[in-house]
Amino acid sequence: MGMATITIDGIAREYPLGIPFEEIARQYQPEYKDMIALVLENDKIRELHKKVEKDCQLSFLTIRDDIGHKTYVRTGLMILVKAIDDVLGREKVSRVKIEFAIGQGYYCKVVMEEKLTPQIVDAVGKRMRELVESDLPITKKSCPKAQAIELFRSNRLYNKEKLFRYRRSSFVNVYCLDGYYDYYYGFMLPSTGYLKYFDVLHYEDGIMLLLPGSEDPTRLNYFSPMEKLFSTLMTSCKWGEMMGIESVGDLNNTIRDGLLGDMILVQEALQERRIGEIAREIVDRGNVKFVLIAGPSSSGKTTFSHRLSIQLRTYGLIPHPIALDDYFINREDTPRDADGNYDFECLEAIDIKQFNEDMNRLLAGEAVELPQYNFKLGKREYHGNIKKLGAGDVLVIEGIHGLNPLTTSSMPDESKFKIYISALTSLNIDDHNRIPTTDGRLLRRIVRDARTRGNSARSTIAMWPSVRRGEEKYIFPFQESADAMFNSALIYELAVLKQYVEPLLYRIEKGEPEVYEAERLLKFLEYFQGIDSQNVPANSICREFIGGSYFHV
Fold first, then answer.
1. CATH code of the domain covering residue 399
2. Contact of 96 with 74, CB cutoff 8 Å
3. Under a CB-based contact definition with an 8 Å cutoff, are residues 206 and 109 in contact?
């Protein structure tokens, strides 16, 4: 057997050709705080079961790295589906679907004749632990597409069969765990024993699989139910069921069958109906003078605020938009983060005292000159924008801190109506491969940043982790305090964004740190049949990102 020279951290060592990367990773694991999940071989990501075939540079990715954490989650979901299969048997279960994530929990729906009880869920959890303790191998093989489709059909995984009808590649990677075959989009850990931290709960009518977050991958957080978020997500899933589009395969079939125009109109009508319902809630509340809209990056807050304002006008109210960003303190006074950079996401970057004073004076019937922030100069300016609230006037205030009680601490609660908006993707790749909501928002952001700010996809991807940390700290903790929630995700939008974002992602060169995320997103977009944007209405939230909006966004 020949030898290969492997260089790790600048030190070259000899290893036998054919040795699995997993064995090398075990030697270096003591040097890493977190579990190694993948390796980089000459800057190409490899699963641990792969073998050394040549001389190479090698480095390691752990479950704290984003792509390593996704690998951990994916492995946990496969073991869950396998455990359900073992406990209930295929003759009892017609479908197992990973619906969505809530915090660190992944909600799974099991469709079967009998009711899913806590006892059944306990048995599934017990079986998962048995599989983990047995440290069974998870193997991977490449099958001809026709053979893979037949395998999925025989196992009643019909939406995977539907998905791969549109796959251009001639081969499909299929994973196997103890005789159970499945397809997963992305990398997998080499055996069940790697899943060291997890828990299984009975939640609502399904199963909640708890897994650690990437920021602390060895700790499971206590699961706190989020009833409003769960209800909003379930409503979106029901919309998908009603439209007959629950997976990418369903969407591609709709595009193929020439039903695109009607599908877009129905989806937009469902959103408009929900916006109208929120407007009605505001009117019925009475005495509302401040509508506070908050949500994470690229959730479509601006378009939503315009469309909500139109609905409020149908009830005789006069809405006035206000951006919390106009209350930024001067740039030189902005707090700095741990790296010494300006922290524009923190609450202290906003002049909360002045904001509350101005809002309370407006509530008292006074005329108030509102500021406008000059982002070029980094200063708050005044240009004679005088406001005075009449009987039908309502301020529609948009900003990431809108739901934080400290933002409006001195304003009476009865005058406020709080709305949380996010793009909560309900469309799945297939039953066992969900689309993270962050992926949809990131693709939106890449397209908009390139169009409106001239930013490259590389720069948007590079700053995305910082954006996400700000959301986790300043937005998500307050989402359940909202009076209403709105899901801005459109079931068709990824097929539209595909044409805009692919050229931007292809500009990221090999050797740049962001290339791995770009390659992952490009592979993900291959599942979609692209569609032209001509059928997208001018008032659609999608237009906020691709351009051509009726509103000034």
1. 3.40.50.300
2. no
3. yes
